[in-house]
Amino acid sequence: MHRRKLNRLVFFFSLLIFWACSQENDLGRPTYAHPTIEPLPYLPVYPGSYWIYVDSKGDTIVKSSAKEYRSVSADCQGSEDSIMVPFYDGMYIHGYNYIMCTDYPLAKNKRFHGILRDDSVGTLVQYWSIPRGFNSTQIIERRDFSLIVNGEQYDSVLVVLDYSSGGGLYNNDPYIENSRKYYAKNVGLILEEGGNYVTRKALIAYYINR
């Protein structure tokens, strides 16, 4: 009889400890009142993540995400129809785009600006960048291969070639910028090159806070 009571007490206290631990975990996990847009594989900018690069001069560059998702109005009008998105490198990230709200005539209300595309080779996308006002053309140049960067091998790599040209809305001097960006699945940007394949920055360390 005493052993049966002891077993019941052990079982009861075990349940109590389990409940207390689950409550602590729930309290430590942030909850959001609005829909949350999760990051996508080639741009896994989960809150609390960071990426460290080295540029052509040997200087380090750190890119990071805010510790929590941030709210942004879905229509850029401050309505209640808001969404929670990652805030990475000063940008509200929505999938493979960033959201910029502006009063410029060509970009009223919500604007999605492309960062990359997870699409087939040869896919071409054109968009306007506001407020600089230039035409940008992105081309999926290559994908699904392995690449070694600073001694580390990355698989499932996607290459986006970006041509940017135009004088801007308030600038009469035309210009052309070329960049080639390499994204690894579940890692993010691993390498960026300028014209003639000159390295602008290469990944040396990262942490994805899933």
Model description:
The protein has 210 residues and is mainly beta. The chain folds into two domains: 1-31; 36-207, YmcC-like fold. Helix content is 13%, strand content 43%. It contains one helix and 14 strands. The strands form three sheets. An eight-stranded antiparallel beta sheet has the order 2-1-14-13-12-11-10-9, with no helix packed on it. The protein has a four-stranded antiparallel beta sheet with strand order 5-6-7-8, with no helix packed on it. Strand 5 (87-88) and strand 6 form a beta hairpin. The radius of gyration is 23 Å and the shape is globular. The model is unreliable at 1-29, 105-109 and 167-173 (pLDDT under 50).
Short description:
This protein is mostly beta strands.
Class by SSE composition: mainly beta
Strand order of the largest sheet: 2-1-14-13-12-11-10-9
Shape: globular
- Count of DSSP E strands? 14
Percent helix range? 10-25%
CATH top level of the largest domain is: Mainly Beta
Instruction: Bin the strand percentage.
Output: 35-45%
Low-confidence stretches: 1-29, 105-109, 167-173
Mean pLDDT: 77
CATH architecture designation of the largest domain: Beta Barrel
Largest sheet: 8 strands, antiparallel
Total helical elements: 1
